[in-house]
Design a protein that fits this description.
alpha+beta, Beta-lactamase, 2 domains, five-stranded mixed beta sheet, five-stranded antiparallel beta sheet, 20% strand
Amino acid sequence: MSQSELRIRLAELLSVIGCVLFVAVFGGKYLILASFDPKYRSTKNTVTYTAIRDRVVEGNILDKDGAYIMGGSYAGMPSYAEYPLNYSYAWLLGYYRVDSYQETQAGLRGNLKQYLMFHLDSNDRGASIKLTTDNMLQNAAYSLLNGREGSITVIDNKTGAVRCFTSQSTVAFDVNDPITFLNSEVEGAQFRRGTFENDPPGSTFKLITAAAALMKAEDEGLDESYFRYNDTGTYKTPDSDFVITNYGDLSYGEIDLEQALNHSVNCYFADLGVRIGARAISKRAEAFMIGKDIEIPYLCTLHSSININDRDKTILAQTAFGQGDTEITPFHLAMIAQAIANDGKMMQPYAVESVSDGTLEIPLHLSRKLSTCMSRTSAEKLKEMMHSTAILYGLDEASYGYVCAKTGTAECVNDRLHTYLIGFTKDASFCISINNGDRSANLYPIAQQLVSTINYCYSR
């Protein structure tokens, strides 16, 4: 072989090696590493989207009945939501953007981008996504917030399907115009109320204490005398001079568990919590998934915490009626209501039903139990107590059907109050959450209108 032929062969070999190395590096970075490393996956997405953005047609997003939430996209332009869906769904849907090879995303649109914008058919149209929500209920719930900072969540009792989740933050987020959201300098503007805020549960936690007491009575064969208490309007914890009082400095005399729930008697639940003990309350809270992360597929992960022990009776007593060191999200409170409604079984929450490419519809979720929170027998007793409580809130059976409910007011940092009203109908559970409120009783009219809408939507 001549010297010139040798040089040619060497050049060919080096070219092949270079190509192999290029393919290996490129493939490793954008195929293999992108499957495991979010940084490389984001880089791959930005490169891909930049190449196709002028021709991609974003897939449609539909409610549970196939009605449009967002649609009407054409080449190079995002989908569009008509008013009021553009506001009521904004915090749930979020956005997906690529600017200067920088990927930013939030909510379902961000987490479902692989289907909506990267899974293209022959016409460069993305797949359609069907949610579990009801447009009528979603819009009604958003109107009930009436500009107040907070959220409303509605979950199907039997399946865990999210029928409504609407949020109002410090800015009016229009899903058609995410720039105003992204550029907002208002503190907390990009904070989705309902899923990311962790505050004390207030008196809604009395349901957990009641569940722990009912399960203890069931397991140990305790009679009704265990639940009787003489309320004087004050309770001093056993290990200190710390005094707990009832709202309005009221006293109720001889009461039982149902009456204590009806009137949300702090002293009763402080005493009951200390008698039950930290272990029993912690066990029941854990069964209700408090202190555990809960994933809502394609949306986010809920966080919560609880910290009690028998050595600090003051914290134990405070925790038992809803203060202490417990923190939870409003969405999780709706799940607690759902578990009680569903005979003690908490279902995995989900907001995305299926994806369709126009020819085939593929389910993205199978309904499953997340936790057994309490026995059916104890759940039935707790339901009846919550039912009589709901009647006191103006949710009488003649006007609203069978409704169970419990309010809560949490004392948060910076002297802020967070008010809740959680409950359920025979079909769905809900949590109304208003930040910076003053009294949970102000939520009664909102609950009445929400329950009426839930009943109508389920009867259609």
